[in-house]
């Protein structure tokens, strides 16, 4: 029997937890925040998340009739943009490990009139249930930092990309603009939990989200992880002074 001190662990925010326990705890966070997720995104970012997502969509280079996958797609913002790019003759798959988020996203897209050319799959990013070479573009926006085994998720996404396909990873990162980091820290650890308590009635979940950003790999580390997963021509774009970065890589 494995001794307790030998058990593999990982971070859940600033807390160290058993490796196998993180997915369950992340699921609890998003079960809680799903109903107010879109409102909180607007409040937390001052609406900037919409600009970051639009920039991501501008980099997909998708054409009508192609196939796209949005991993950890939450409430469907990226998937909606992808659907406009590939058209009804193409296919967009919105996937998320969390059933509450996926249901919320599906309802939002149906309310927007998207009924054709889009599918919904509850899936773990580390073990995507799709055939090799399935998609021309894969996106994951603000989801990778919540994945337990990020290396496995990157490898899984590369596997289901078609040759010539592109992976786009939009995620919070490390501020690089002079003087921004202390202001960002104050905002993250004081304002975000306050908004979580007042608006979403869940201070702990938003404290976790702030902490998870600090534990996520920085720009250069994530770039190296993408290369190790077998992606090529990898690069990144800092947005809003490095608060967010868009990483991209190709399967050739």
Order of strands in the sheet with most strands: 5-4-3-6-7-9-8
CATH class of the domain at 25-31 and 47-173 and 218-250: Alpha Beta
Summarize the biggest pleated sheet: 7 strands, mixed
Give the full name of the CATH homologous superfamily of the domain at 25-31 and 47-173 and 218-250. Answer: Vaccinia Virus protein VP39
The CATH architecture assignment of the domain at 25-31 and 47-173 and 218-250 turns out to be 3-Layer(aba) Sandwich
Strand percentage lies at 15-25%
Q: Strand tally, please?
A: 9
Mean pLDDT: 91
Helix content: 40-55%
The backbone outline, from C-alpha atoms, is globular
Unreliable stretches covering 5 or more consecutive residues: none
Class computed from helices, strands and strand pairing:
alpha/beta
Provide the succession of SSEs: EEHHHEHEHEEHEHHHEE
Q: Give the quaternary arrangement of the chains.
A: single chain
CATH topology of the domain at 25-31 and 47-173 and 218-250: Rossmann fold
Radius of gyration: 18 Å
Count up the helices.
Answer: 9
End-to-end CA span:
44 Å
Describe this structure in words.
The N and C termini lie far apart (44 Å). The protein has a 7-stranded mixed β-sheet, sandwiched between helices. Helix 5 links the parallel strand 4 (91-96) and strand 5 (118-122). It is of the alpha/beta class and 252 residues long. It has helices spanning 22-33, 37-45, 48-58, 77-86, 99-111, 150-160, 180-198, 203-215, 219-228; strands spanning 9-12, 15-18, 67-71, 91-96, 118-122, 135-141, 161-172, 232-239, 244-250. It has a domain at 25-31 and 47-173 and 218-250: Vaccinia Virus protein VP39 (Rossmann fold, 3-Layer(aba) Sandwich). It is built from 9 helices and 9 strands.
